[in-house]
Design a protein that fits this description.
Layout: E1 8-16, E2 21-27, E3 39-42, E4 46-55, E5 58-65, H1 67-72, E6 83-88, E7 107-116, E8 124-129, E9 143-146, E10 149-157, E11 160-165, H2 167-172, E12 183-188, H3 190-200
Antiparallel strand pairs: 1-2, 1-6, 2-5, 3-4, 3-6, 4-5, 7-8, 7-12, 8-11, 9-10, 9-12, 10-11
Length: about 200
């Protein structure tokens, strides 16, 4: 489990296609403290560390990405140099600063508009097109995770929703570089998923 609070922005340094695609991600996280088999959220998806090392002053870790993950997330479009929001899994007793995030991405949302609302160097309101069929899992004042970042929904209208990003979030996650038309990994609130399933039962 995760909280959606990003602790580092890593960079994809190598991609090796195969039955599962192996990706190496450079990070400022202390790789000596990361166990093989540990879970790290990489711009949303929860991935398992299968190798790690150091290259000079920089650490790196490797993950294997399944065909299902490549098909359902933006990872299939990543190339070397792509910047990645990173969060290590929660430990019991950790502060829950965001909301409960599973790292199980539901689909891809698309940026529709980015409108400054806080004046110069202030907040920006992002409007997103929800993934097909998933807008019903988004509620005003509810939670979503976008590229692994925990956010509060400000407004919902039909298949679109908006969130407000404060300067800290813009500066310390990859969302600050998003522009109109950009795709992001979308994870609905866990409770919304189960309520929707119960309603269909």
């Amino acid at each position: 489990m995760f909280t959606g609070i990003i602790s580092d922005i890593g960079t994809v340094r190598k991609i090796e296609p195969g039955t599962d695609t192996r990706m190496e991600i450079e990070t400022d996280l202390d790789v000596a403290d990361i166990d093989i088999g540990a879970s790290i959220a990489c711009s949303g998806p929860c991935l398992t560390v299968v190798a790690k090392g150091r290259d000079g002053s920089k650490g790196w870790f490797a993950v294997d990405v399944s065909a299902e993950t490549l098909a359902r997330t933006t990872l299939g479009f990543w190339t070397a140099g792509h910047r990645v929001n990173l969060e290590r899994a929660m430990r019991l007793g950790d502060e829950l600063g965001g909301h409960m995030v599973s790292g199980h991405v539901d689909g891809i949302a698309t940026v529709g508009a980015c409108v400054p609302v806080g004046g110069r160097d202030g907040s920006v309101r992002f409007t997103f097109q929800a993934p097909p069929g998933l807008s019903k899992l988004v509620a005003e004042k509810g939670s979503v995770a976008l590229d692994g970042v925990a956010l509060t929904v400000n407004h919902v209208e039909d298949d679109t929703f908006s969130v407000n990003l404060i300067p800290h979030t813009l500066e310390n996650t990859t969302l600050g570089a998003c522009v109109e038309g950009a795709d992001v990994n979308f994870e609905a609130d866990i409770i919304a998923r189960y309520l929707n399933r119960l309603a269909l039962a």
